[in-house]
Amino acid sequence: MDRSENLILIKGIDRTHDVEFCRYDPSKGQYHIKYQKSKTYNYNPESIEWIKNPEKPSPTTVRIMHSGRELYKIKTISIFTTKTTEYWYVCFAENKELTLKASELNISYSCLSGDDAAKNCLRYLIKLASVNELKSDDGEVLLRKQYEKLDFVGNNTVMAIYMNPDRHKVQTHYSNNLIFPFGLNASQSEAVTNALSNQVSVIQGPPGTGKTQTILNIIANLLIMGKTVQIVSNNNSAVTCRAG
Fold it and tell me: Which of 43, 222, 228, 230 falls between 20 and 30 A from 139, CA-CA?
C-alpha cells in the first residue's frame, strides 16, 4: 500500500504500513483488508476510515518540528484529513517514512510561497546587497551570497512582516512582572516594556543615554522567562560587555 497516497485507519489506529491491499465490497457492505505476509480480514465500514487524494505541499514551502527537532531532507509530504484528525506523512531522502498527527508537530509555512510581493522584496534585497562593500577574500559579496541561498522565510518571522506588511502583521502581547536589576529611568522602562511586548522593537539614542543598560534589563527578563538570547554586534567588545 502506497503510504503517500493512502491512509487506512482501522478502529482509529493507523495501519497503513501493515496493509498490502484494501478493497470495499458493496455487495457485502464490508472492507476486505490483506495484511503484509498474512491473510485477508473483513471489517464493517464503521471500523475503517480510508483516506485518499491527500494534499501534497512542496517540502521547500514548509518547515516541520517534531519533539523539538526540525525534520530535514524531506522528499515528499502528504496531508490526510480524517473526520477528527489531520495526519502528515513524511518521506525522507533515504526513504525513511513517518506518519504523524498534526497535533504532534510544529508546522510553519514560507511567506515566499505564492506571495509575489515577498518574492519581489527578496529580489530587491539581493540587488541592494550586491553593492555592499563587505566581501570575502576571493572578492565575493558576502551579504548577497547569503540572500541568494535563502529559499525559506517563515510566515511567523519578523522578516515576513518586513517583506509583506499588508499580509503579515506585527504580533504583540502583554508583559507584566518585569524585573530591572540594572536600574532604569522612565524612558528606559518604556523601552524595555515595548521590547518585551512587541515582535519588533528598535531602541536608538546617542552615546550615554543608557542603551546598554536597557539591553541588559531586556536580557535579564528574557532569561527569567526561560528564553534564549542571541546577541550580535559589529564588534566583539560590545558583545563582551553585554554578555558580561
Answer: 230
- Rounded-to-integer distance, Cα 170 and Cα 214, Å: 22
The residue to which cell 525513511 is assigned: 96
The reported pLDDT for the residue numbered 243 is: 45
Do 85 and 103 meet the contact criterion of CB atoms below 8 Å apart?
yes
Every domain of the chain with CATH number 2.40.10 lies at 59-109
Residue 6: CB atoms within 10 A of its CB come to 19
Q: How many CB atoms lie under 10 A from the CB of residue 26?
A: 6
pLDDT, tens digit (0-9, with 9 covering 90-100), for 75-101: 999 999 999 999 999 999 988 999 999
Rounded mean pLDDT, 209-223: 91
For residue 201, what is its C-alpha cell?
522593537
Residues of the chain with CATH 2.30.30: 6-52
Cβ-contact 147, 112 below 8 angstroms: no
Q: Between vectors from CA 26 to CA 20 and to CA 32, what angle results, nearest 5°?
A: 20
CATH architecture of 59-109: Beta Barrel (2.40)
Total-model pTM:
0.70
CA dist 78 and 81 (Å) reads 10
Q: What pLDDT sits at residue 239?
A: 64
